[in-house]
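Reviewers of the previous submission asked for a worked example of the structure-prediction workflow described in the proposal, so we include one complete record here. The input consisted solely of the amino acid sequence. No template or homolog information was supplied to the procedure at any stage.
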Amino acid sequence: MLVAEKCILTVVSQIIPYMDEYSVESHGYQVQEVFEALERENTVRAEYSTGTDIWCSLDDLKLAVKGDINELEPGRLVKLFLGEPGVSRFFCTGVLFDAPLDLEPFSCGLRVIFFRKSQSYQKNLANELLEWLRCGTSEAARLLMIVLDSSHSNVTWVEILTDISYFVYQLAPVGTGDVIHIAATSEDDLVDEINERKIVHQVTTALTGTIYVEDVMYDPPEDLIFRRLCFERTESWVHSEVPLSREGPNDFFGQVEDKKVSADFTNWKKGNTQKFDSHSSGSDSESSSGQPNLEHNFLATVHHQGFIAGLLLFSLHSERTSSAGGLVKTVIIGLGSGTLPTFMRNCLHNLVIEVVELDPVVLNVASEYFGFIEDELLKVHITDATKFLRERANSEEEGDDSFKVDVLILDADSSDSSSGLISPEADFVEESFLLTVKDSLSDRGLFIFKLVTKFSSVRGVVYSTLKRVFSNLYHFYVDRDSIEIIFALKKESPRMSENELAEVCDELSRSLKYIKTTWARGVKVDSRLINPLP
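From that input alone, the workflow returned the following structure tokens.
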């Protein structure tokens, strides 16, 4: 539905229908879909009126749509895009913050930070307080964070900075000095406190695009090293990571070359620099200190811990059993590094796991760099997920329901962020796919996936589609509200009340009482955050 209004207003009114959906006769879901569209439109209008989801250009800011941009306004947050046809070659999105007054004195008027990963961007937007603290740490009166996505992968941030300097320079507040500090990070270094990094493998495939494996050292402690898997086509969102340890002296990061860069151009003073390790270097190198040992019984990725929390909670609630020797038939869509299915095989001993992965190169990377191994309880199918699930859905029609899935986990991110979704793929939240998912599940089947989007209107559309297919839905947020885990039960029964959920959580805590591990403690905490989907 497209709604256009001629007037330029700072506040727009809500659309109020003169009838409800139950007073109109229709075929199918036509009236319901119209009212859902109106609800989404009203959500967009409310966000516009409150200014929570408005993106501005430099021209907009000059017109004072967010106040006088030349003056500091403590606590102000502005989402903006930089670039203009005929003026710059590149276009970037970013966020501008004005620091609170209690963080004075400031050593510079404007600090510009380039991020290479949308994961950092999500964290920044999800928790503004973190950004105020970062402004204070950097001693900057104003912080401008510029996000470099996959469209900027073939150029350096210095080239982009030089190109858009006309726009950036005009964002420096007056009366705070003429010093502008420039910093860059190729990953989530400033957010995740990463000390060193090295790419140990990089490969490009026709199906997935560029895949790279990197080892990162967090600071502190200096001996904490993780191996991470990233897909460039998803704007380098970190898919998964696992703790890494080595035999003998750990001199791996001593071999990483420090690359310090700075920007200095007309009318700018050269500021502080930040270490920047380009993705273009060392992409096929491997450590000389031997093959790494990976801790597969550890859940380092927050959404994977959320998956396990819901799986155990709802399995306990439904007392799920299967006809295949008491084993729970589990399907995971998206292999990634293989750390999630490997953990589940090692720590949840009543599962028989099948992983569906489209790209055989992903399987090769998982096997070679993350120690992924198949066995009789963990198999990988190189095939299309929809085709695989459709075969499971049709098994009952063929008189054999033993292929039905007890637990289905969708762990695949979007390859096209223009849909508004960072995870999952837009096709995976279409009604046709969700119906196939439901048909592939056993009677007490559970569907789990993570939903990541910057736009509440997109989230609303996903909610509406889910509710047309599943009536028993639950969710919770992890990672400072930037990642939402959704659980859909096939069983058409009344949703659990808060008291029922609390009772099951207590029972889950008792069942994990003697498992003294980090993941078990995390699961007990996450399970208590799960609530019915509104």
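Confidence is low (pLDDT under 50) at residues 118-137, 186-191, 247-290, 320-324. We consider this example representative of the routine output the project will generate in years two and three.
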